[in-house]
Design goal:
single chain; four-stranded antiparallel sheet; flavoprotein; Butyryl-CoA Dehydrogenase, subunit A, domain 2; three-stranded mixed sheet; 51% helix; 385 residues; 3 domains; AcylCoA_DH/ox_N_sf; alpha+beta; Butyryl-Coa Dehydrogenase, subunit A, domain 1; Butyryl-CoA Dehydrogenase, subunit A, domain 3; binds flavin-adenine dinucleotide; Acyl-CoA dehydrogenase; Acyl-CoA_Oxase/DH_mid-dom
Length: 385
């Protein structure tokens, strides 16, 4: 992207979020829904396709550019980002990483415009951190594939027009091998979506189970065509690495907002006739959060630079996601502390962000899985024992 175009996009997004979305945060949390007019504006601004190449109608951002966008998106409820997070991230990347030219041409322009919402269906009841337990099956039947199984916690499943389903295509393969990815459009007979999960936070972002009961799809639904057979795990790993870089940047954005809320409260709240900002122990809480935020920001920008240069597409995203998701948890905790009792009360922004932030250490790979990846990269064979 041209630098001037990027700066225009960033300032338009910043204005939209601060003027139009922030005032709706409490409503979104209470109603567990994002107003239609906000969704429409996101589509108009190109947010459903920021990471999709321009040739398919997207904004074509590099990870460095995307990180700066996510710093802005992180300022408000993460439910906003979830609307279009799967199209740009885990689900859209499936086609960019592993799709055929035809699959990209067919789906990416509709993902980029927001006409279509896509989900990424990897997790199952017994296959979370380790996809080796994947039990969803894909069986060839003539030229078709027949899918059976249940996916769990799938973001945007209740509104998805298409789901990227990971299924075991080779029943004899063990571990991460023998998995393929299938494009399953909503409305395909045998595909059904469970009730919305009742989550701890991030209200307005929806997840649900996805049931596949003898779902028949044509050969053209196999991501990557015949070359994609049994390549599902490699595709998932690359999509998740990109997603981790993005989540890390989002955490930095949220940390910035939490610092802002903490500073504003400390300046106005008085105890003993003095603003609490004048107490050095409160200053210590704020100083630690400012330092955490700056460290996260620097790490994310360095990670994205190396990712775009192609020198580190694995360890950096895991390290950044690990650090930034833990970091925003600490910053949210301090923000509640600065607010005292008010920080524990519904309707106060930091209470909501405290709940929202908790998810970042869990999805797209838990903190422990990031540690495993970071150590494996550092130690190579020695880490595997
Ligand atoms: C709101 C939400 C949205 C989600 N969206 C999606 C989505 O769109 N698509 C999708 O496919 N999935 C999605 N997920 C699933 C998410 O990625 C998984 O929940 C996550 O990867 C953890 O898997 P699990 O829940 O099965 O936990 P488990 O894997 O059972 O982990 C339980 C605990 O064991 C630890 N652990 C597991 N294995 C190891 C190990 N080898 N070493 C050390 N510790 C380990 C974990 O760190 C964790 O502390 C979502 C989840 C949530 C809650």
């Amino acid at each position: 992207m041209e630098a001037s175009d990027l700066s225009d996009v960033l300032s338009a997004v910043r204005d939209f979020i601060r003027k139009e979305v922030v005032p709706l945060e409490e409503q979104i949390d209470a109603e567990d829904a994002i107003p239609e007019r906000v969704i429409a504006t996101c589509k108009e601004m190109g947010l459903y396709g920021f990471a999709i190449p321009e040739q398919y109608g997207g904004l074509g951002m590099s990870l460095t550019e995307e990180a700066q966008l996510a710093f802005e998106l992180g300022w408000t409820t993460p439910a906003l980002r979830s609307l279009f997070g799967t199209n740009n991230g885990i689900a859209g990347q499936v086609l960019l990483v592993g799709g055929t030219d035809e699959q990209r041409r067919d789906w990416l322009p509709r993902l980029a415009s927001g006409e279509v919402t896509a989900s990424f269906g990897l997790t199952e009841a017994d296959a979370g951190s380790d996809p080796a337990g994947l039990a969803t099956t894909a069986r060839r039947d003539g030229a078709d594939w027949v899918l059976n199984g249940t996916k769990r916690f799938i973001t945007n499943a209740p509104v998805a027009d298409v789901i990227m389903v990971f299924a075991r295509s080779n029943p004899d393969a063990v571990g991460n091998r023998g998995i393929s990815t299938f494009l399953v459009p909503a409305g395909t007979p045998g595909l059904s979506i469970g009730p919305r999960d009742h989550k701890m936070g991030q209200f307005g972002a929806w997840t649900a189970d996805v049931h596949l009961d003898d779902v028949r799809v044509p050969a053209a639904a196999l991501v990557g065509g015949e070359d994609g057979v049994d390549r599902g795990f490699q595709i998932a790993a690359r999509c998740l690495a990109h997603g981790r870089g993005h989540i890390a940047a989002l955490c930095v954005g949220m940390a910035g907002r939490l610092v802002h809320e903490s500073v504003e409260y400390a300046k106005t709240r008085e105890q003993g006739g003095r603003p609490i900002a004048s107490f050095q122990l409160v200053q210590g809480l704020i100083a630690d959060s400012v330092t955490d935020h700056l460290a996260g920001r620097a790490l994310v920008l360095e990670m994205a630079r190396a990712y775009d240069a192609g020198t580190d597409k694995v360890q950096g995203p895991s390290a950044a996601k690990y650090f930034a998701s833990e970091m925003v948890g600490r910053v949210a905790d301090r923000a509640v502390q600065v607010h005292g009792g008010s920080g524990y009360i519904r309707g106060v922004a930091v209470e909501r962000f405290y709940r929202d932030a908790r998810l970042f250490r869990i999805y797209e790979g838990t903190s422990q899985i990031q540690q495993v990846i970071i150590a494996r990269q550092a130690l190579g064979e020695a880490a595997r024992g």
